[in-house]
Amino acid sequence: MWFIRDVCGIVCAVITWLLVLYAEFVVLFVMLLPSKNLTYSIVNGTLFNILAFLALASHVRAMCTDPGAVPKGNATKEYIESLQLKPGQVVYKCPKCCSIKPDRAHHCSVCKRCIRKMDHHCPWVNNCVGENNQKYFVLFTMYIALISLHALLMVVFHFLYCFEDDWTRNRASQGRDGEVGEGAVLGGHADGIRRPVLSLLVQPLRRAELQKESCRTHPRPTGGDHRGGHHRDTT
After folding, report:
1. CB burial of residue 189 (10 Å; 0-12, 13-18, 19+)
2. Its membrane topology, per UniProt (predicted)?
3. What is the pLDDT of residue 177?
4. In whole angstroms, what is the distance from residue 54 CA to residue 120 CA?
5. How far apart are CA 215 and CA 104, in angstroms?
6. Catalytic residue selected from 94, 114, 122, 128
7. Measured in Å, how far apart are the chain's first and last C-alpha atoms?
8. Rounded Cα–Cα distance for residues 134 and 139 (Å)
9. What is the pLDDT, as a whole number, of residue 132?
10. How many CB atoms lie within 10 A of CB 153?
11. Alpha helix locations (H) across 72-193?
12. How far apart are CA 197 and CA 189, in angstroms?
């Protein structure tokens, strides 16, 4: 079992899990469950949960897999002789962990080991990214990118749905009352905090539309007299 006992790395790994779980909570209970379309909620909820599960599983594999650590203290005379080096062949010894460093191996100050094909030490997975766990790290970042893109698309659809719903209610209120006041633009919604905020965003557009409608329905002059060749309205 490979696990780095680094306080900063453990805290960052826990934060990573909490962020994914928080995103799942927001998507399910704020965006999907209040939706009136059952098929939309089931499909997007299932897809998001699958991607989140794969992301967390890849995170665990990247965190708990030996990245390719070189055994400590193997830079002994007997071990070097067992390598059967050719004449002129050079081997490098790490002065910090007393191990023979293979090609593209680097010493990690956090893991306190030389890691084969080390890329970097990632605190978010609390491990080095090396020869053995690079695949899991790439999968983790890919799944995080996919759930982020999925959530972003759902936010856009969620906004458009709220915008259309508010607009429909506003038009229906205009048809019932003949005019829309300030209360009809900002109030009249019992669906939570999101609708008043969106109403504030689209309020200028609605006011402009209502002003156009009132100008179209304004009555024209119906009579007048002509004195001195001039027309005078009597409305």
Report:
1. middle
2. Multi-pass membrane protein
3. 58
4. 23
5. 76
6. 122
7. 91
8. 9
9. 94
10. 11
11. 77-82, 134-177, 182-186
12. 11
What are 165-219's pLDDT values in tens digits? 667 777 777 666 554 444 444 444 444 444 444 454 445 445 544 544 444 444 4
pLDDT value of residue 20 = 94
Cα separation, 86 vs 173, whole angstroms: 89
Structure tokens at 123: 């605190």
12 is a catalytic site residue: no
Helix or strand (DSSP H, E) at 53: helix 38-64
At residue 55, the pLDDT reads 97
List, for the chain, all residue ranges whose pLDDT scores fall below the cut of 70: 165-166, 174-235
The pLDDT value recorded for residue 206 is 52
> What are the structure tokens assigned to 213, written together?
């409608």
Q: Work out whether the CA dihedral 166, 35, 17, 52 comes out positive or negative.
A: negative
The residue type at 185:
V
